[in-house]
Automatic annotation (TrEMBL):
<keyword id="KW-0175">Coiled coil</keyword>
<dbReference type="InterPro" id="IPR009976">
    <property type="entry name" value="Sec10-like"/>
</dbReference>
<feature type="domain" description="Exocyst complex component Sec10-like alpha-helical bundle">
    <location>
        <begin position="190"/>
        <end position="799"/>
    </location>
</feature>
<dbReference type="Pfam" id="PF20667">
    <property type="entry name" value="Sec10_N"/>
</dbReference>
<keyword id="KW-0268">Exocytosis</keyword>
<dbReference type="GO" id="GO:0000145">
    <property type="term" value="C:exocyst"/>
</dbReference>
<keyword id="KW-0813">Transport</keyword>
<dbReference type="InterPro" id="IPR048625">
    <property type="entry name" value="Sec10_N"/>
</dbReference>
<feature type="domain" description="Exocyst complex component Sec10 N-terminal">
    <location>
        <begin position="68"/>
        <end position="184"/>
    </location>
</feature>
<feature type="coiled-coil region">
    <location>
        <begin position="78"/>
        <end position="105"/>
    </location>
</feature>
<dbReference type="Pfam" id="PF07393">
    <property type="entry name" value="Sec10_HB"/>
</dbReference>
<dbReference type="GO" id="GO:0006887">
    <property type="term" value="P:exocytosis"/>
</dbReference>
<dbReference type="GO" id="GO:0006893">
    <property type="term" value="P:Golgi to plasma membrane transport"/>
</dbReference>
<dbReference type="InterPro" id="IPR048627">
    <property type="entry name" value="Sec10_HB"/>
</dbReference>
<comment type="similarity">
    <text>Belongs to the SEC10 family.</text>
</comment>
<protein>
    <recommendedName>
        <fullName>Exocyst complex component Sec10</fullName>
    </recommendedName>
</protein>
Length: 806
């Protein structure tokens, strides 16, 4: 190994350019340089390496013995790296010079190529322009040649047509000398085409010159007219022959022959006659047995008496059979006719106008509004139900036929036209039907009431009940619900038959107006009957009012009669309250029906909903007015009985000190007890029957009447201090009862009565303090003070004058 003192040139060359090519690794390069000098840093000692020399005694071992060798190696390696860099730089300079030279040559070559390509493009453009010019010229030549060929063919065809036209320009009706073309069955299509062309030309010429030929052109004009006649005759004959062939092929189900005939026939009137002929000859339009079977399927065994449900089932069956038949015909039409949509349009139109209309004419026999059918036979409702069923099922059939195919036919409009006569008068019939149902129901209810009165009338009269009470029909919520059900059914028919919002709204308003009239009339008449019962009870009370100078026997009889009249009044009161309660329930049902059903149909149309609300409000107000009159009569009935009890039960001694010196009775008087018991009993039904403002106003009015009646009643008596206490006990009893009215104004009045009763209890000298404590009772209290039994003896009048003066 070289020593550290060796010059760098003496060291071996350890670096080469190849070491830096490929995947260069500095770690690998460094390892290859120092492996020889530092074997101890290898993964394991190199084989055959001499052991390190033993350390010299007394000398310190070197820290890194190979440092000098490594420095020399690194310096030599740096020199070699510098040399390598110089070599590479020199080679790079040479390469740059070569690249610059080649780039200049390449640029020169590219410039020459661009000039050549530009010239080539110019040549291509001139060539393309030339080719385009030649192509246009060739196209023009081709067009001229095609036009010439077309003119030649047209001229040739014109010559043939003129020749054929001359053949038809023979004696009228003489078609025996025509070319074989017109009699050859194998060339029928060509003959038909030529005949149609000839006829069109001849008819156009005759039309251009006029029907009457001018002098000097008689032969030409007559010839054309003869040709027109002969051609028409030939075309008719040919068309008949083709139709006969078509019918024969149709019977044999030879689709190809049918299609061939249909294609040829399409040249005559665009095939209209062939299409109509095919449709007309369908069995469903010419077989009388099929038409009779149709109505039998719809009506069934019941015949004209069949109900709407049976008719609906029958129509479903029949319309399904019709749809299946049309579907089968559609298969044939698609395979045979060149314009199947037009044929389907004619077929479907014929189905609706003939077969369906024939069925509906038998079903929908419009009744006379002047002479309605009996309700026992279904009345007008039967006709309307059948109309709705027929319309619904026919619309379903129309949709099914449209899905099968009907060309450009307005099937929806056609379906509507079938029912237009019925829909025009629908509203009048619906209203008449509702009136008929109402009249029938009222007659039924009257018959039931009469029958019931006949069976129970004797018993009722024996108990003193008024005759009208026995005969009257009570208002029934079930009946009103039935009215609503009729109307709901009518509304469902209306929305089925009409779709335009404005039309629907107008009809709905008319139908709903019938319900308002029915409910208003029914409830008003029911309330009037209940009021009549109250009137009878009042008349019965008035009949048994007697004077004071009568015998005891007469007085006893009159008292018994008055008791009977009171019972009748109480019964009438209960009946009217029940009627009012049922009226309220009926009106609630009406309002709920309006909210749930009618409103949504009227809201889309401006003004319809508010108008209907006004109509309903007017109808309800009529019922409320009648109910209000009856409630006032009820108050009169109650107050009449209260006054009777006061006059019969209230004794003059009730409010005086007992003459026998017995202790005063602090219990309520018998009159008070009976009146409170009567009111509790009779008003029980009022508390349950009335609600809301009706209940509040009724009880308030009754409380005011009671307050006034009691004040007037007590004006007839004189009161001792103990009597004043008993009066106060009565007032307390009355006050506790009227507290159930939940009327603060009435409670306040009876509280003031209790305070005012103190004028009978306090000592005369304390009256002034009583007025000071409650000044609001001054007016009534001054009147009551005069009823004190010591008013004169205690000289209370002079005391009052001094009080008033102060």
């Amino acid at each position: 190994m070289p020593s550290a003192t060796d010059p760098p040139a003496a060291l071996p060359l350890t670096l080469d350019l190849e070491d830096f090519k490929g995947d260069f690794s500095f770690d690998a390069l460094f390892g290859s340089l120092v492996d020889e000098l530092l074997p101890e840093f290898r993964g394991e000692d190199a084989p055959g390496a001499p052991p390190p020399p033993p350390p010299v005694l007394g000398a310190a071992p070197p820290v890194f013995p190979a440092v000098d060798e490594l420095l020399g190696l690194f310096k030599h390696s740096c020199k070699e790296l510098v040399d390598l860099r110089r070599q590479i730089d020199k080679r790079l300079q040479n390469l740059k010079k070569e690249v610059a030279t080649q780039d200049a040559k390449h640029r020169k070559t590219l410039g020459e190529l661009e000039k050549g390509v530009d010239g080539l493009f110019d040549s291509f453009a001139r060539l393309d322009s030339r080719i385009s010019s030649v192509g246009q010229t060739a196209a023009k030549i081709g067009d001229h040649l095609q036009s010439a060929e077309s003119q030649r063919e047209t001229a040739s065809q014109t010559i043939d047509l003129i020749k054929y036209l001359m053949e038809f320009n023979s004696t009228p009706g003489d078609l025996m000398e025509l070319s074989p073309l017109f009699s050859d069955d194998s060339r029928v299509a060509e003959a038909a085409s030529i005949a149609q062309k000839l006829r069109s030309f001849a008819e156009e010429d005759v039309g251009r010159h006029g029907v009457t030929p001018a002098v000097g052109s008689a032969n030409a004009s007559r010839g054309l007219e003869v040709a027109v006649a002969n051609l028409q005759e030939y075309c008719n004959e040919l068309e008949n022959r083709l139709l006969a062939r078509f019918d024969t092929a149709s019977q044999r189900r030879e689709m190809s022959t049918m299609a061939e005939c249909a294609k040829i026939l399409s040249q005559f009137n665009r095939g209209t006659s062939a299409m109509q002929h095919y449709v007309t000859t369908r069995p469903m339009f010419i077989d009388v047995e099929i038409m009779n079977t149709d109505i039998q399927v719809v009506l069934g065994d019941e015949g004209p008496q069949a109900d709407s449900i049976s008719i609906a089932e029958g129509l479903s069956i029949l319309y399904k059979e019709i749809a299946d038949t049309v579907r089968k015909e559609a298969t044939t039409i698609m395979a045979v006719f060149p314009s199947p949509n037009e044929v389907m349009s004619i077929l479907v139109q014929r189905v609706l106008e003939q077969r369906v209309t024939a069925i509906l004419d038998r079903l929908l026999i419009k009744p006379s509004l002047a002479n309605l059918p009996p309700i026992e036979e279904g009345g007008l409702l039967q006709y309307l139900r059948v109309l709705a069923v027929a319309y619904d099922k026919t619309k379903e059939l129309a949709k099914e036929l449209q899905s099968i195919g009907c060309g450009d036919l307005d099937i929806e409009g056609l379906t509507e036209s079938i029912f237009v006569s019925h829909k025009d008068e629908y509203t009048e019939f619906e209203q008449a039907s509702l009136r008929q149902l109402y009249q029938s129901k009222m007659a039924e209810l009257r018959a039931e009431a009469k029958q019931q009165s006949e069976s129970t009338g004797t018993i009722g009269r024996s108990k003193g009940a008024p005759v009208t009470t026995l005969l009257q029909q009570q208002i029934s919520v079930t009946v009103v619900t039935e009215f609503v059900r009729w109307n709901e059914e009518a509304i469902s028919r209306c929305t089925l038959l009409f779709s335009q919002p404005a039309t629907v709204a107008a009809n709905v308003r008319s139908i709903f107006a019938c319900l308002l009239d029915q409910v208003s009339q029914y409830l008003t008449e029911g309330l009037d009957r209940a009021r009549e019962s109250l009137n009878e009870a009042a008349a019965q009370r008035d009949r048994y009012v007697i004077g004071t100078s009568v015998s005891r026997r007469v007085a006893a009889a009159a008292a018994n009669a008055a008791e009977a009249a009171a019972a009748a009044g109480e019964s009438s009161f209960r009946s009217f309250m029940i009627a009012v309660q049922r009226c309220a329930s009926s009106v609630a049902i009406l309002q709920q029906y309006f909210s749930n059903t009618i409103s949504r149909l009227l809201l889309p149309v401006d003004g319809a909903h508010p108008s209907a609300c006004e109509d309903m409000g007017s109808a309800v107000s009529v019922v409320e007015a009648t109910a209000h009159k009856g409630l006032l009569q009820c108050i009169d009935t109650v107050m009449s009985e209260v006054e009777r009890l006061l006059s019969s039960e209230q004794k003059a001694t009730d409010y005086r000190t007992p003459d026998d010196g017995a202790a005063p009775d602090h219990r309520p008087t018998n009159a008070c007890i009976r009146i409170v018991a009567y009111l509790s009993r009779v008003l029980e039904v009022a508390f349950s029957a009335l609600e809301g403002l009706n209940k509040q106003s009724f009880l308030t009015e009754l409380g005011n009447r009671m307050h006034k009646g009691l004040l007037n009643h007590w004006q007839k008596f004189t009161f001792s201090p103990s009597g004043g206490l008993r009066l106060k006990r009565d007032i307390t009893e009355y006050g506790e009862f009227v507290r159930s009215f939940n009327a603060p104004s009435i409670d306040e009045k009876f509280e003031l009565l209790g305070i005012m009763a103190n004028v009978f209890i306090v000592a005369p000298e304390s009256l002034a303090s009583l007025f000071e404590g409650t000044p609001s009772i001054r007016k009534d209290a001054l009147r009551f003070i005069q009823l004190r039994d010591d008013y004169k003896t205690a000289k209370i009048a002079s005391m009052l004058n001094s009080i008033m003066a102060e």
